[in-house]
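Methods, example record. To illustrate the input and output format used throughout this study, we show the complete record for Integrase. The sequence lines were provided to the predictor; the line carrying structure tokens was produced by it.
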Amino acid sequence: MAYAEKCGNNSWRVRYFTDDGTLGSISGFPTKTAARDRAEEINADQRRGTFHDPAAGRITLAEWAVPWFDALDVAPNTTAQYRSLLRNHIEPRWGASALSAITGIAVTAWAKKKRAEGYARSTTSTMVKLLTMMLADAADERLIIANPVRPNRRGRRRHERTPERVWTTPEKALRVALHAAALGGVWAGVLIITGAWTGARWGELLGLRRPNLDLARGTLTIDPDTGALLELGGRFELGPPKTAESARTITLPPFLTTLLGHQLATHSDPFVFLSLEHEHPRRSNFSRRVMRPAADGTLDRPRHRLHLPPVQPGLTFHGLRHSHKTWMIADGIPEVAQARRLGHRVPDKIQDIYSHVAPEVEARLLTNLQHRWDTALATLTELATHETALDTPLLQLAAA
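The corresponding predicted structure is encoded as:
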């Protein structure tokens, strides 16, 4: 039971018992009556089960982050991303702040400042999302009364359309692959072709090992436990793919089984895709040294060793996955088959029940992919007679 207690010549405080039996206090009451009134409020709240210990919110965000991350149960790469955001962005601003001192308006202003510093809206949204999750869990643990961060209802209503992700055509995808082969080696071009013609993610292809590639059956299997190569704190680690649905078997068009067979013949390592140094390529390095110049061209970089025209500026490796999805839509492939191939959850419950893909649909999908490849290859083989950037060992290998 809470009660009033004199703590000086002209000051009173309220003493109360916390959930763990310790004695807490609230000081600063000028009169005994004021202290008694607050004590009665606390007693009423404790009877209703709604009392919140004001001392609990004095824990700082940095202190709360330690047990919060200990209890976090997400994929290792997600944990690494969250720790990076906490270390580089959240703790510098909020680490020393008491949980109870963090306000929604202050968080909104901080996010606005981050965007003004040049961070993408998606990046700042992830920062706010992480901070919001930490505060929501703090509220659940009764460290604060409520999560102060709520959906923003102030400012301009946003009617901007979400920018479309950059995708490309089969011909341009092959062009980018040929440029990549010239920049980083044939393996880099085969990697890009495989990404474009399977829709597999970067980590899924980098984690692909020989036992998961069945060239006789023409399949590529993403293992549910070790189907992705993750970059965690500067080191590589095999782990599960992005979602449970991501564990799947992808059928390959005939040309791709041939290319992948040549790729396997270039080395004896268990992993299918390795750099010329027989190392795992880092995503940031591959993007900077291979993907960007292959897609954007090098004409604005006169000192670059290769003179490459732009093909599809802004295309990323993940954009190859969007391209694959676009091709399947254009070819009239059913949504169920698209979802199964890309490792997406089938949205409709009825479709989820009847989620098998008929052999006829799978055959049509592969026929269409092979046709797209044959058309792109024929076009670029003809153009290579007067476009030296296209005349690479990869094109010769593909056309053989």
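Annotations derived from this record:
The mean pLDDT is 88.
Strands lie at 3-6, 12-17, 23-29, 213-214, 219-221, 228-232, 235-239, 249-251.
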